[in-house]
């Protein structure tokens, strides 16, 4: 994982990803009462800013300073406030707990992702929620797009098993529609939702 690579990628275009939130994130979070949120691997802030627009107090963490700056600029343009932290999620230690801990497309090798998930789970406040969406391992054979390295593609069972004392309410593969060459095809994602007692 190289921050310089991502800095260059984020500098190369106005937006690498879309400006709006990930549709699954928006769907999964829409029924929650806004509170405090932690967005791990937040990139340009698409989910962070959307959460802030919907009343959440959000801390965004990404190891790319360019991404962090873009997230702050996007928030300012929409007149919302976020806390943007430039840090490597594999070593980042939250100093408080959060009502929502989000990991959206944080595609790391399992020896790195497992400990990140354990830290994330420990950061969920009582009654709060953990949400992960990621390109799934089965996407290599049965889906489209995403990383082509199986080492960075988790499964629902892997993720659910790394969440310590959280109560897993959803651990499944979902099909995500993708427009490709004028037709709709599907990517396969891991979706895991869990709550803290």
Description:
The chain is an alpha/beta fold. It has one domain (3-141, 152-186): 3-Layer(aba) Sandwich (Rossmann fold), CATH 3.40.50.150. The protein has 7 helices and 7 strands; from the N terminus they run H-H-E-H-E-H-E-E-H-E-H-H-E-E. A 7-stranded mixed β-sheet has the order 3-2-1-4-5-7-6. The longest helix has 13 residues, at 65-77. The termini are far apart. The mean pLDDT is 92.
In brief, what are we looking at here?
By secondary structure, the chain is an alpha/beta fold.
Fold blueprint:
Layout: H1 3-11, H2 23-29, E1 36-40, H3 46-53, E2 57-62, H4 65-77, E3 83-86, E4 98-104, H5 110-122, E5 124-135, H6 139-142, H7 156-161, E6 167-180, E7 183-195
Parallel strand pairs: 1-2, 1-4, 2-3, 4-5
Antiparallel strand pairs: 5-7, 6-7
Label this structure with key terms.
single chain; about 200 residues; alpha/beta; Rossmann fold; 7 helices
So how many helices? 7
SSE pattern: HHEHEHEEHEHHEE
What is the strand content?
Answer: 25-35%
Distance between the termini: 33 Å
CATH class: Alpha Beta
């Amino acid at each position: 994982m190289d921050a310089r690579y991502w800095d260059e990628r984020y500098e190369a275009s106005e937006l690498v990803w879309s400006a709006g939130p990930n549709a699954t994130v928006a769907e999964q979070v829409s029924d929650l009462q806004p509170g405090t949120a932690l967005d791990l691997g937040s990139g340009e802030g698409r989910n962070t800013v959307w959460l802030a627009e919907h009343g959440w107090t959000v801390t965004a963490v990404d190891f790319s300073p360019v991404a962090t700056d873009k997230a702050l600029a996007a928030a300012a343009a929409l007149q919302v406030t976020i806390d943007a932290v430039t840090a490597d999620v594999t070593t980042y230690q939250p100093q408080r707990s959060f009502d929502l801990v989000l990991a959206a497309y944080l595609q790391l090798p399992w020896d790195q992702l497992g400990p990140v998930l354990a830290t994330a789970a420990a950061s969920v406040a009582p009654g709060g929620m953990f949400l992960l969406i990621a390109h799934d391992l089965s996407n290599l054979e049965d889906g489209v797009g995403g990383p082509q390295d199986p080492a960075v593609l988790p499964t629902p069972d892997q993720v659910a098993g790394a969440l310590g004392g959280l109560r897993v309410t959803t651990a499944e593969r979902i099909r995500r529609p993708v427009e490709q060459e004028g037709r709709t095809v599907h990517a396969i994602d891991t979706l895991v939702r869990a709550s803290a007692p």
